[in-house]
Amino acid sequence: MPLNLIDAIQGLGHRPLHINHFDADLCLLYKERLKFDSELNLPLAFRQNPQAWIYSGPEAEDKAVIIAKIQSDDVSWVFEHLPDWKQAIYYMTEPTEGKLHPPLNKGREAMAYLTFLIDHYNQLPAYMVFVHPHLEGWPKAWHTDSPDHNQVLSIRSLRLEYLEQQGYVNMRCIHDPGCPAEIQVDRQEDHRTTEHAMRDAWPYMFGGNYTDIPKIIAEPCCSQFAVSKKQVLKRTKSEYEHYRQWLLDTPLDDDTTGRVFEYLWHVIFGREAVHCPPVEQCWCEQFGRC
User: Fold this and answer.
1) Mind spelling out the 3-state secondary structure of 169-196?
2) pTM, two decimal places
3) Cis peptide before 83 (omega within 30 of 0)
4) Which Pfam families does the annotation name (predicted)?
5) How far is 6 from 231, CA to CA, in rounded Å?
């Protein structure tokens, strides 16, 4: 390898580069750096488990944004506007792009979220925000609860001290859709596929049988939430693997399986089956919008 390239790589210190970086030269440096990881003393956890890789820029603190993207999604806003956050971008439909990929593109964002928790279980950041790839605007980002549905505003305004106290928070305060009673397992309408699926998913994941499933399961939609490391570690790695195995094995379609997890994240992270905090209280305490 040319001397000037070695010098350039060493000049990067221990800061990992994103393999899908916009600068082709930096991409080359990153690839070369992987060949010489022992020489450059990359973190042991990464050398032992490449799936535990996470982008950490020079300003990044002990907190991370986790996103699942498909080919049409533009996630450049994460790098441009959240330099103080580590970033884990899962490329769901682009196996030759990026660094992180799920074992299967199924369950919408759920597969990426669970894969992150499993692969990073021993190197979790203190705070994690799991969100969709859309930056802002209607209709793509309608599920983001902030002015102009802006994801950056939502993440920046999240009060981490409140997250530390709560362990888990939904990034959406507005109740509709989701609250007060989105999932009612006794309903028999054919079109309610998530409720039918929940009758199998709940006992598989949490034990018991049909009679142990809460009659109502609810929280604000839409699979965007924040959780602390302490809260994640209240469950074992094998539990998260167990949840993902249901997703891998079930013959149910992508939308249905994604919605099952959409209404189970709060349960997985320690909340009651119905978790619908008052909207104004959520805005004030969680985001400082009092």
Assistant:
1) EECCCCCCCCCCCCEECCCCCCCCHHHH
2) 0.83
3) no
4) DUF3431 (PF11913)
5) 41
* Chain-centroid distance, C-alpha 13: 28
Assigned token pair, 263: 């209404």
Q: What is the C-alpha separation between 224 and 21, in angstroms, rounded?
A: 25
- Report the distance separating Cα 197 and Cα 256, nearest Å: 7
Q: What is the pLDDT along the chain (290 residues), one digit of tens a residue?
A: 333 333 333 333 333 333 343 344 434 433 443 333 333 344 444 455 667 678 888 899 999 999 999 999 999 999 999 999 999 999 999 999 999 999 999 999 999 999 999 999 999 999 999 999 999 887 877 778 888 889 999 999 999 999 999 999 999 999 999 999 999 999 988 889 999 999 999 999 999 999 999 999 999 999 999 999 999 999 999 999 999 999 999 999 999 999 999 999 999 999 999 999 999 999 999 999 99
CA–CA gap between residue 34 and residue 16 (Å, rounded): 10
Contact between 179 and 167 (Cβ < 8 Å): no
Q: For the chain, where are the alpha helices, taking DSSP H only?
A: 3-10, 24-35, 37-40, 44-48, 76-81, 109-119, 151-157, 160-166, 193-206, 229-232, 237-249, 254-262, 265-268, 279-287
The token pair at 97 is 């792009």
CA distance 37 to 44: 10
- Asked if residue 151 lies in contact with residue 135, where contact means CB atoms within 8 angstroms, the answer is yes
What CA–CA distance (Å, rounded) separates 10 from 7? 5
Amino acid found at 121? Y
φ/ψ of 288, rounded to 5, equals 75, 20
